Amino acid sequence: MRDSEGNMATRRGIYWFYNDFRLHDNPLLAKAARGVESLHCVYFSELKSQFERRFLPIEIKDDAKQHFARQSVGELNQSLRQLGQVLHKLEADGLSQALDTLNDLIKDYDITDLFIAHSASWYVDTIVEQLESQHQKLDIHRHNTHSLFSDNELPFDLDDLPQSFSKFRKLIEKQPIPLPSGTVTMLPPPINNRQGLPEAYGSFEGTLDIGESVRGGELAGLAHVRSYFETDAALCYKKTRNALDDWHSSTKFSLWLANGNVSAKAIVSQLHRFERHNGANDSTYWIVFELLWREYFHWYGRRHGTRLFAFSGIHNKAPLTSFYAQRFRQWVNGTTPYPIVNACMRQLKQTGYMSNRGRQLVASCLVHELSIDWRYGANYFQHTLIDYDVGSNWGNWQYLAGVGADPRGHRKFDLQKQTQMYDPDGVFIRKWEGEGLTMSVDAVDMVDWPLDTND
Questions:
Q1: What was the pLDDT predicted at 151?
Q2: Which of 135, 187, 237, 423 is the most exposed place for a label (fewest CB within 10 A)?
Q3: Where does FAD bind (predicted)?
Q4: 251 is in an annotated binding site
Q5: Has residue 174 been placed in a domain?
């Protein structure tokens, strides 16, 4: 690019970190390091839309999620400072303010290049599209930092994404998973190093107790992956993965994957190294199998856009559910007539985490037992789960509600049978105090008269 006098113009970039809070296996950040002479590193503390506010009608406690996120950002800030950079925190109350904030930065700093990773977030893509239309000379660079494959590595066009995971898996398993790229070790100087995050941001906070003490951040995530594969847990993963409350029963990789602290490719690379030394079996394969589920929902979100959040899902088939405020509060607070559901919901509220099996059970309960619009549950998960991932969360809720990628139409779990299978002695239910809380799903009738539950 040349200026009006024909001289080579200085290239100034903005790197917008979004679910890629790391230096390893981040080819987009490496491209920014090579492509601009100065760089402004930013992230938004939170992006909320009117849609989210509508489907979150209660006050929530998300301390664990915010704690983990603060640690993740703080560690990234420290890593950037070691490379002479600084991370800037941006505030925005909604799409319009986020767009205005970025527009101001582009104008104030004469930005020539914007770097923002691809994601399944329609919200982020909308902001990027509007920036592109408003700044004709702005070069926008995007890359798939959150997935195993890039668009051009898929064995089909995105418009032809299979409508079920099984069909997707049969196609994608034929593709070799690319190796992770290296770690970024050099960055251009900051455009403005004032008002960035303080050096100690997020570094003095303690660990979270989710069965074991964990911290957010790239170093903590990579250390967890290494420590997992230093044990033989991967060899029996398929047998233990459905446990409701045992730290060692599943990988827990999702905590750092969702926050972009660890890349999926890095995990697969470590797994293959483990298999070379310890052998491969159904359990080691199952780790890849579940990463492919995550991969599918990433492209599912990219493919369907706003339909990911539609009540009638991707097939335009509305379920027979509504919204009942009292039932929803019971579900959130873990005071339903279903002890296994109560225990899972109380675990989530306290720790910010719930097992995959637990998520299926509480989702089935909300939709099929309580007859509540699935979007309220999906939105509650979005704001409380440490490992919230837009594609996986909303895609899985559509799946359970019968409006998504499930060829069977819906998934209703027998909660009593599931309790006998996964908590036969009631240990999990007693630990999280899920018993004896209520015998009715309604405390008021349709006109808000109190119900006599003794009738």
A1: 94
A2: 135
A3: 237, 250-254, 387-389
A4: yes
A5: yes
Full residue range of the structural domain in which residue 44 is found: 12-145
Q: Is the pLDDT of residue 87 over 90?
A: yes
One domain, residues 17 and 137? yes
With tokens 């290049």, the residue in question is 113
For residue 67, pLDDT over 50 is answered with: yes
Q: What per-residue confidence (pLDDT) applies to 406? A: 81
CATH code of the domain in which 359 resides: 1.10.579.10
411: left (phi over 0), alpha (psi -120 to 50) or beta: beta
Q: Mean pLDDT across the stretch 143-157?
A: 96
- Alpha helix stretches (DSSP H) within 334-389: 339-351, 356-364, 374-384
252 is in an annotated binding site: yes
425 assigned to a ligand binding site: no
**In terms of domains, do 173 and 55 share one?**
no
pLDDT at 25 over 80: yes
Domain count, the chain: 3
Both structure tokens of 169: 């898996």
Residues 23 and 139 both lie in one domain: yes
Outline where 184-281 has alpha helix (H): 218-229, 237-240, 254-258, 264-278
Co-location of 38 and 162 in the same domain: no
Query: Is 283 assigned to a binding site?
Result: no
- What CA–CA distance (Å, rounded) separates 108 from 389? 33
Average pLDDT over residues 163-178: 95
399 has binding-site annotation = no
254 is in an annotated binding site: yes
Give, in order, the Cα–Cα distances in Å from 96 to each of 14, 131, 353: 19, 11, 32
pTM of the model: 0.92
**Is 250 annotated for ligand binding?**
yes
pLDDT at 444 over 80: no
Tell me: do 92 and 162 sit in the same domain.
no
pLDDT tens digits, 380-418: 999 999 999 999 999 999 999 999 998 776 679 999 999
Residue 278, phi then psi, degrees to nearest 5: -120, -5
Q: Is 388 annotated as a binding residue?
A: yes
